[in-house]
Write a structure and sequence with these properties.
By secondary structure, the protein is mainly β. It has one domain (29-128): Umud Fragment, subunit A. 7% of the residues lie in helices and 31% in strands. It has 2 helices and 7 strands. Strands 1-2-7-3-4-5-6 form a 7-stranded antiparallel beta sheet, with no helix packed on it. The longest helix has 5 residues, at 29-33. It starts with 28 loop residues before the first helix and ends with a helix. The mean pLDDT is 84. Residues 14-120 form the Peptidase S24/S26A/S26B/S26C domain. This is S24 family peptidase.
């Protein structure tokens, strides 16, 4: 008996792949999540006040400092020395965590209030994020 070596190849033979000219750009999360790299910061959400609008404890908040605040934006702000994430009604200067909630905070003249930026994205983390992983060391 004689053995003839035949090289075999996997896949469909006889027809070219319809996707042979298709090029897929590499996935880059920066391109998907960040609009203004030089004005973007990432914060870690803590607490459950914003659950009704889809932001949960441990989510990452992508904050763009170059965006102008408009009514009902989700913002990261500093109120009397405390860093908070809240919805803001710019017309009445009211902060709230849920559009249907009756609990809100009216910004008074004596309050120290500074908006750090507008939340443009939130990212759900299915495993806890360690604060050390977010630092730029």
């Amino acid at each position: 008996m004689r053995i003839i070596n035949i090289s075999a190849s996997c896949g469909i033979t006889g027809f070219e792949s319809p996707a042979k000219d298709y090029y897929q750009k590499p996935l880059n999360l920066d391109d998907l999540l960040i609009e203004t790299p030089s004005a973007t910061q990432v914060y870690l959400a803590q607490g459950d006040d914003l659950q009704n609008i889809g932001v949960f404890d441990g989510d990452l908040l992508v904050v763009d400092q170059s965006k102008s605040v408009v009514c009902n934006d989700l913002v990261v702000a500093e109120l009397n020395g405390e860093l908070i994430s809240t919805l803001i009604n710019t017309k009445y200067r009211v902060l709230y965590s849920d559009p249907g909630s009756s609990s809100s905070i009216t910004i008074q003249e004596f309050d120290e209030f500074v908006v750090k930026g507008v939340v443009i994205r939130s990212v759900r983390c299915h495993r806890p994020v360690k604060i050390e992983e977010l630092s730029l060391n």
